[in-house]
Amino acid sequence: MTNNSKIYLDSLNNPQKKAVINTEGSYLILAGAGSGKTRVLTYRLFHLLLEKKALIGQILAVTFTNKAASEMKMRVASLLGRPIDSMWLGTFHSLSAKILRNHANLVGLKSNFIIIDKDDQLKIVKQICERDQINIKEKTPKYYLKIIDNYKNKSVSNNFFIKNNKDKDIGLIFNKYQSELLRLNCVDFGDLIIHCIRIFKKNKEVLEKYQNQFKYILVDEYQDINTVQQKWLELLYLKNKNICCVGDDDQSIYSWRGADISNLLSFEKNFPNSTIMRLEQNYRSSQNILDCAASLIDKNKNRYGKKLWSEKDKGEKIIISGFWETKDEAMFVSDQIEKLLTKNTKHSEIAILFRVAAHTRSFEERFINIGLPYKIIGGLRFYERREIKDAIAYLRLVNNYSDDLAFERIINVPKRGIGKKTLNKINIISRTNNISMYEASEIFINESNGSNLELSLFLNNFTKWNKYKKEVSHYDLLQVILEDSKYIQYLQQESKLMKDPENLTRIDNINELIESLKDFENLEGFLEHVGLVMENISNTSKENINLMTIHSAKGLEFDNLFLAGWEEGVFPSKKSIEELGQKGLEEERRLAYVALTRAKKKINITYVNQNRYSYASHDYNIPSRFIDDLPKKLIEITDSSFIPNNDFIDEFVNSDDISDEVLTPGRKRMLSNSSFKEIEWNLNQDENNEYNLTKGQKVFHKKYGYGIVTFIEGEVAEVDFKKSSQKQVFLKYLEIIN
DNA sequence: TAACAACGCTTTTTT
DNA sequence: AGCGTTGTTA
């Protein structure tokens, strides 16, 4: 190979180049945010192929999400100029599923096993509790499931689990849960990997086959892998011992899912003779943003430590704004966004990040009002919607009559008068004869001389659909099924009754599902995809503003970033701190670090004083401590609740009646909307005159709580607050307490 | 079996 | 406050 043909290496800096061309041995690449990690990974893959170190099928590349996998696949394919479909590139789960399908019999499964989701898992646990009469008052099925799931992130052995739990019920439930999964020919997410490891350990020849096949292993987001995944990697690595893991300890944000940074910290132990490399030049963010992020993450104690630097300009300060209510926050952000849009900023370069998925709501309302296009990434996942799961359950059952979980889901949807009693009888037949519910219901009908008309109609339909399956395309099949089963009719009826406005979109979702079916060659392919892909289908090429949680923003970047909900309790999450103390706080801080480092140019942070959860409206939130962690010189704070004359309010109060020019397009649209009502600004100065505040008066303040007035001048009072020091506050924000 | 009332829990993050 | 789950009744 001449140097000429490696021209692609010229676009890399030196550390990056080293990370690409050192192919033999074990490497840990500590890649800071925005340091070109993905680039290094794709180039490394490309390099391996170009240098003929390995064939496409001899590389194992593990990513964190399916999205990342398909993106990498695309990038490498375009560098290479040919498709790389035969590369083993995917998530731990999808790769494990692929392996497991080939050797399912070795762990007592059939190769057409079904991958179940949380709902199905929970259903099984519930059934077990019911059958064994386990009290679920104090410890709910959800709790048991959580323990099982957590355990499956940590260990491969079932026995260990039973031995180490004092709670007898958990051991019992765990055992029954596992045998129930086997009986139903199912696996949960954790099992996918665990079964693989079991196969590897018990069957040397299988393990060797894969060990020999995978000459090179690549792992992305290494900081977020759990103990079981680490074991999986170690087994496959042992033969060729070429592994390259890329990660950033500062961006580990999945400990609640079993991610264990100690994997990263003990890399040299797990993969002996390894080399650690660092990528510290940041190509993404302005210097100010980097400095802010650095000063924040510096507060964490448990970290490798690295210093990111950039050749970019200082850039703009981070703007921090506080509001009373969530709708004020949404309004401010949407106005800022409209300003950006008038400056020809692309929608796709704008993102709003949330700690909690549910908090997108007030923003959505606002965007719908003013007609801004947005999309929610992550959020309510498409495949988790009720109607989608129903439709898929029909498909699952047509595809495989012994899919009992699918059977139970749709046997009475839409209502066929087949309730608990009938179902119970079928269930008993199924269990005593060791047959599927579907077969059991055939027997049930024969025994009852076909008296259950609805049930026999249901079964007849399936016989019919099963025939269709061979004759028509899978998307036509779904259409037929949904009509024959009167499912569509049922949705239409529901939406007519207006019980739930959601029902209108349900039919749209079904249509979208039928459309997306066309992307798959056959039904089996689609069902495999659905089992593994928990992400939304994003077929919208339209320009949209991006709304998502910080977790799902991992790996992404945007010019303009809005970070909403930076309040104590929300972010850092109260729950996280309560459950894990200092550790929890550090993870929250890493999350904040991830959030900040998504931005290329500009960051707006917002917080809201009033508690977001109105059912507990007695508490008021204070700004996140993470705001205090940012260097004062690099930020600008505007808190409308304390400075009523700030720009934001001026602009709003005046803009409606003064000048058209200040009106953003969205605001115009909204004002022309008859149903729009102006937001009530709590700025009525006259009210304050009614306050007869005197020195020594007990008062309540929404932000600082209870206190005693020590001094009054004009509109401002000095108050000695119980929970805080002496503060100067506006009279109008004080409530008199008698 | 289905409809309705009562109750209690929610708001962390996802393959 | 609003949802889903459980219990009660027709």
What does this protein structure show overall?
With 738 residues, this protein is an alpha/beta fold. Helix content is 47%, strand content 14%. The strands form 4 sheets. It has a 7-stranded parallel β-sheet. A 6-stranded parallel β-sheet has the order 3-2-6-7-1-8, with helices on both faces. Strands 19-18-17-16-20 form a 5-stranded antiparallel β-sheet, with no helix packed on it. Helix 27 links the parallel strand 13 (558-563) and strand 14. Helix 5 (118-131) crosses helix 8 (168-183), helix 19 (420-433) packs across helix 20 (437-447) and helix 21 packs antiparallel against helix 22 (474-484). The radius of gyration is 29 Å and the shape is globular. It starts with 13 loop residues before the first helix and ends with a strand. The model is unreliable at 642-690 (pLDDT under 50). The structure holds a DNA duplex (15 and 10 nucleotides).
List the helices and strands and how they pair.
Blueprint: H1 14-21, E1 26-31, H2 37-50, E2 59-63, H3 66-80, E3 88-91, H4 92-103, E4 114-115, H5 118-131, H6 141-154, H7 158-163, H8 168-183, E5 186-187, H9 189-202, H10 204-213, E6 216-219, H11 227-237, E7 243-247, H12 262-265, H13 267-270, E8 274-279, H14 287-297, E9 318-323, H15 326-342, E10 350-354, H16 361-370, E11 374-377, H17 386-399, H18 404-410, H19 420-433, H20 437-447, H21 453-471, H22 474-484, H23 487-496, H24 502-517, H25 523-532, E12 545-549, H26 550-553, E13 558-563, H27 574-596, E14 599-608, H28 625-628, E15 635-639, H29 647-655, H30 665-671, H31 686-690, E16 698-701, E17 705-713, E18 716-721, E19 726-730, E20 734-736
Parallel strand pairs: 1-7, 1-8, 2-3, 2-6, 4-5, 6-7, 9-14, 9-15, 10-12, 10-13, 11-12, 13-14
Antiparallel strand pairs: 16-17, 16-20, 17-18, 18-19
This protein binds a DNA duplex (15 and 10 nucleotides) through residues 64-66, 91-94, 118, 189-190, 192, 253-254, 256-257, 355-359, 378, 381, 415, 417-422, 532-535, 549-552, 570-571, 573-576, 587, 591, 612-615.
